[in-house]
Amino acid sequence: MKVRSNRLDGLGTTIFAEMSALALRTDSINLGQGFPDTDGPDSIIDVAVEALRSGRNQYPPGLGIPELRDAIVAHQSRWYGLELDPATEVVVTTGATEAIAGALLGLVDPGDEVIVLEPYYDSYVAMIQMAGGIRRPVTLRPGGTARGQAGLRPRGTDFRLPIEELRAAVSPRTTTILLNTPHNPTGAVLTEDELRAVAAVAIEHDLVVISDEVYEHLTFDVPHIPIATLPGMRERTLTISSGGKSFSFTGWKIGWATGPAELVAATMGAKQFLSYVSGAPFQPAIATALGSDADYFDAFRAGMQTQRDQLCDGLARLGFDVFVPDGTYFATTDIRPLGHEDGMEFCRSLPELAGVVAIPHQVFYDDISAGRSLVRWAFCKRPEVIAEALTRLERLTRV
Ligand SMILES: Cc1ncc(COP(=O)(O)O)c(C=O)c1O
After folding, report:
1. Domain 6-40+295-398 adopts which CATH fold?
2. pTM of this prediction?
């Protein structure tokens, strides 16, 4: 009996599942998986409860309820000046994960090459493979070997986009660039110059851009620029985001993709056979959340920035080389100053050594040498949890 398909070869279990299970088993603090340990606003939960109680429990429309599509359109207009048609240019998905899956299955044919920033979010690799595509990684690297002041590296110098390497990665079989900004796991936020360079490549070679912007509301002192706002890009970009990340309801799995009708239709074409429709009672709640006033977004960002600084300062004090992120809720460290070389070994032993879980970067690379000694830590956790994790991590410096 054959129980495995070639499409799944080499994919194994996602590192997030492995490390979250390890955290539970060892009663460790989970700074691995990127989910907040506080829920989003009660007022938004109330909308979901009301939807449950008022009978919004059957299949909603495949594209998403009109109320949510309108709210997504209003959000893109309000924050970025992007005007969309809610009837044809928006699809609601089961998290950004399904938007990524639908886009890649709907837009990539077997043998097509997809350029992807490395380290990459692991579902990109899985879905490119399931679509029969070929990934062409372009690697974001640390800027140098020098440790910054007090262990914190100088801002904006690491994990920049190597534009020449991006140009060189294009071949006659390239059809798609899969972008991610703010970038998981490095926390880099692509600058306008970098995005313009990507846009120039996409336009010159007539490529589709799929832009994963789930951390759009989590940038710290730098702007988030959707590539769809650059000249010539709206018509070739599918932008993906998620209510889970912006409103701290990751378990609701409400995401979306927006862009030109043909890209949305291709995504929908695959989505209808993946989930068919997505979380009916959560859709009105996310629609309300998207209309939140600026205070909500400011407070959300400010709280996360405080936690970022708490974690980064603490890790630097312990001796790690810390890459302070400009966006997302992840910080990266190099573990070599503490005498470790291999991030995977380090993360597998960390629960026993210190009762903390983190994620090794190396699982997000084709060539693991580029990220062997890098480890990702999530700071979307309450300050007291981060403080306790840092206290536990002091054990590392005593061995
Ligand atoms: C870059 C990136 N894209 C997509 C997702 C998945 O988002 P969702 O939970 O909405 O499926 C994540 C979640 O961690 C992510 O980091």
Report:
1. Aspartate Aminotransferase, domain 1 (3.90.1150)
2. 0.97
